[in-house]
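User: Hey, my collaborator sent me this sequence without any context and asked if I could get a structure. I don't really work with proteins. Can you help?
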Amino acid sequence: MSSNNAAVVEIAQTAGKFTSSIVLHSENKYIDVKSILGLFTTLVDTHSYELHVHGPDAEEAKTAMAEVFAKHGLQITIAED
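Assistant: No problem. I've predicted the 3D structure and written it out in structure-token form, which is a compact way to encode the shape of the chain:
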């Protein structure tokens, strides 16, 4: 698995390309995936994440986010609304 720093930066940059709200649910926390600081404090805590994506480009965002998380060996579930 690559370093968390690379994962955090790439995840935030990927999320930033979309206008949709992209929120990571981890345990009892909700983190805006576009926030590098939020990701730094969360990605090290746990290995079970749920991603909530809402907005006009949500489908494209879900696909891109799933790819970037998988690339860095992070397990996510994308919430279906």
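In plain terms: The longest helix spans residues 58-71. You can pass these tokens on to your collaborator as they are.
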